[in-house]
Design goal:
about 325 residues; alpha/beta; Rossmann fold; five-stranded parallel beta sheet; two-stranded antiparallel sheet; 7 strands; about 45% helix
């Protein structure tokens, strides 16, 4: 069984990428599970939100699972595991392994040999996921920061939720932090970085690279629509077009949602995305994909990006502090 996690800053195009992968007939998919952020907690702390306070106690630091993570696993098993598996484990590592086994079995019952899960915040828990789930692969989805912040605001206006609360400044900080985390994995085995603008502009080539990385059978054509559920469009109306898994060009929302002053602020405080995108392109050129592995020799860390003036700076450093 091959296990795939699609991660990225929320509103970066992760749903579209998940749905496109789910169109392959060998892939099982499901709605966002929010599992590891429930299991381990402190997502806001990991995002670096200034007002965030840790909810972890000494027993969580000793390896116990958060109670709502155990409840979340129980909820998921009611949907995806026809038979209960006895008492719920108390240690988070055991819960994580049980989660993976649940999805393995659910995929196997549908004669699928891959499963794909997409919860954007799982970007914050890459090490924990890799430590507990064997043969895992991560697809990182990147998108221009101004478009991400605008899309967050647009989704919040469609249906107000806590998931998109916090305003422009918080989401600019989060996007910058997401870029740091993506760049830290660039060139690492089992990690593939994909810019959503490239998937839209050159779908065939980007899909081929992604398909080869995930070791999906190239002889099986994509289905017209995902063969499994991806999201609930009624509960999350902002995902309506993405859940088809069919790539379409989209118009940016930033000009309509932000005035000149806000746009200028964002451009000043966000990390230079075009530089990051160039680095991703260079990594793809330098390290052609092998099945299931990407540029292992390149190491795990990308230590620098270059600003528009050509000067090197540590990954994720902002031109102007937030």
């Amino acid at each position: 069984m091959r296990r795939i996690f699609v991660v990225g800053c929320p509103r970066s195009g992760t749903t579209l990428v998940q749905a496109m992968i789910a169109r392959h007939p060998d892939v099982f998919s499901l709605r966002e599970t929010y599992f590891f952020e429930s299991l381990l907690g402190d997502a806001q702390v990991r995002w670096g939100d200034r007002e965030a306070r840790s909810t972890r106690r000494w027993y969580h630091r000793a390896g116990m699972a958060q109670s709502w993570g155990r409840r979340r696993l129980h909820e998921l098993e009611r949907v995806h595991a026809p038979r209960r598996r006895g008492p719920m484990p108390r240690r988070w590592t055991a819960c994580a392994r049980r989660y993976a086994t649940m999805l393995d079995d659910a995929a196997g019952r549908q004669q699928r040999i891959h499963w794909v899960e997409k919860t954007p915040n799982h970007l914050l828990f890459l090490d924990e996921i890799a430590d507990c789930i064997p043969d895992v692969q991560f697809v990182h989805v990147l998108r221009n920061g101004v478009d991400v912040v605008a899309s967050v605001r647009d989704a919040d206006m469609q249906l107000e939720t806590r998931a998109f609360s916090g305003g422009m400044v918080r989401w600019a900080r989060r996007w910058n932090h997401a870029m740091e985390m993506h760049l830290a994995r660039m060139g690492a085995a089992r990690h593939h970085l994909l810019c959503i603008e490239d998937l839209i502009g050159d779908t065939e080539n980007e899909w081929q690279m992604l398909r080869d990385f995930l070791v999906l059978d190239p002889g099986k054509p994509l289905l017209a629509h995902p063969g499994c559920e991806v999201a609930d469009a009624q509960a999350e109306p902002w995902k309506t077009s993405a859940i088809t898994g069919i790539v379409k060009s989209v118009s940016g929302k930033s000009q309509a949602l932000f005035g000149a002053q806000s746009l200028a602020w964002l451009r000043e405080h966000l990390v230079n995305y075009e530089t990051i995108r160039d680095a991703v392109h260079e990594q793809h050129r330098r390290s052609p994909l092998k099945p299931g592995r990407q540029g292992e020799a390149a190491g795990r860390r990308c230590t620098a990006v270059h600003n528009s003036a050509g000067k090197s700076q540590p990954a994720g450093r902002r031109m102007t502090p937030l």
